# Entry
Amino acid sequence: MSENKEAVGSQRTLKLEYLTRVEGEGGLSLRLENGKVRDVKLNIFEPPRFFEAFLRGRHFQEVPDITARICGICPVAYQMSSVHALEAALGVQVDPAIRLLRRLLYCGEWIESHALHIYLLHAPDFLGYESGISMAGTYPQEVERGLRLKKIGNMLLELLGGRAIHPVSVCVGGFYKVPRRHQLLDLRSDLEWAIQAAKQTVAWVASFNFPDFSPRYEFVCLSHPDEYPMNEGEIVSSSGLKLDLPEYEHAFLEEHVAHSTALHSVRAAGGTSYFVGPLARINLCRDKLFPQARAAAESCGVSWPSHNPFVGIVARAIELLHACEEALSIIHAYQEPECSRTEFEVHKAEGCGATEAPRGLLFHRYRINEQGLIEFAKIVPPTSQNLRRMEDDLRLLLPPIVHDSDAAIARACENLVRSYDPCISCSTHFLQVKIARTGGTGH
Amino acid sequence: MPNGQKAKLAVFKFSSCDGCQLSLLSLEDELLALTQEVEIAYFLEARSQTEDGPYDVALVEGSITTSEDVERIHEVRRQSKYLITIGACATSGGIQALRNWKDVNDFVRMVYATPSYIDCLAESSPISAHVAVDLEIHGCPINKGQLLEVLTSLLLGRAPHLPAHSVCVECKRRGAVCVLVSRGVPCLGPLTRAGCGALCPAYQRGCYGCFGPMESPNPEALASMLKTDGMGQDRLVRLLRGFTGYAEAFRSASDKLEKSV
# Structure
């Protein structure tokens, strides 16, 4: 975090060049006048990459490979939402074993992404370090545990997808190739270790001191009658919303604002912000957690539902444990399917799909022509759904600390934004903190 | 590297997905040992603390897509003794270079409700189009083993071993059955630089060119073979215009095919 101070007469601006320890790059500008918060803007200035535009004219079977490249941290999420949307469009039903393998692949990504965020990006905020690397000096066991957990997530991804970043095995209809049973069984002992390590993770992060900050949120996630939300389900919210996926675009709108190359999502009714991600999922669906994760959620000392965004790290740790348990259970039950992919007819079609990326709901809709070429694509990433909520949170966070030093304000804002695990490459795109003060409250 | 002092490493990002810089954090077994040898002086995704240049080694991810990027990459070059580009975006413009064949203003209108808010260049270009590059690590994403090899070789003061041959060689070594010959699956393996371990053929699908063109590829020969097998011109152009489609050999081949009708 570099600071660049300029003093102009009685006004003062402070510019923090980049928000760090987030994926992708973005900035934050704050305008303070006479000690009051006048304006809060999350500036997403990562250049647009135009995925929805250049997908047009590509073959539908190329879509999961292309959309994976939106995000190097959660490529599987993009692959999953793509294939579910395209299969819904084409009326494809996949083999139950394929469905489970997809969940297993997704568990790999949740383990990798959650371990990365908890140990290397977020925990340093609570323990007073500038990075996981510096934290390793005092907390070597914890950082090594985090790295091994992350590695086990990557091992799952590599076995099922060839590589951890941009796996190559996913296709519409199933997989190009499925693993042999003995290959999966080889991962059992690592996952057994990971379950214990994830339990220690929950206990560790639950012991952190959380700022006293609990806005009223509308939490939104997928919900499935029998499973913890991941690959499919209807959309539910803490305000009682219950929708089938095709109704998503009626209930949630994307707005384009001048300071961001990422679109902002809001609720259609009222234009209000909402909250997606691990905290939303734990608050709304913790009864579907695997047994040890559920027990950890109950005994960790947090009373659910929690409206404290900083507690997101505990929700993430519980999901880490859940993903390890579910992965082990899928591996135990796995029977190799006869065919790795379902055959189907290509026709003119339109459909949508949504899955739960590590950082929240990810919605896709596609229309294809008779040749199977994409005519229209729409992608709503989790971070663009959380952006408006983050701005609303910052407006609530700032008033009590508005007279603190610029560095302290910037740190508090960064910590809050980081608790959302924003993926700015996903949301299209970047964080820089700028504070403008007028009226003599500066330092 | 200077004797007795840790080498200063910086990681810079331009237009990209973050996957290649994540490869550095995905060296789970080597990361802490690496930080004993190398000082990670600037890496926004991993550290809040940053140090000013000059840097001994800069890893540059992403392609150049805005006028601000152009200024920034020149500054990165000035601050860096050894500049290494990592990944398909930085070495060839990336998947976002697909817009180079279209009117970017049309793309802006397709994605954004208020096009006047968006500022970007007409083309997505590789780093080497703007500044001198000392070494390129290819791949979408890069192979983290190659990244470790490059960093290790720099520390030891020797040349890194990076393959220039085709995916076909890796595929044979791996003992995979050729998907093109045995099943007629279109595969860019004969043209593509090795480095992934022939992943796609091993997963029973054709290579889609993540690592970009090998040294001296022959796209015309592959195109005529695929045409003989009944592949249409549109599909061939699409196959060549993927994650490294704007790399010279793939770009000229797809342009020629498009004009041939």
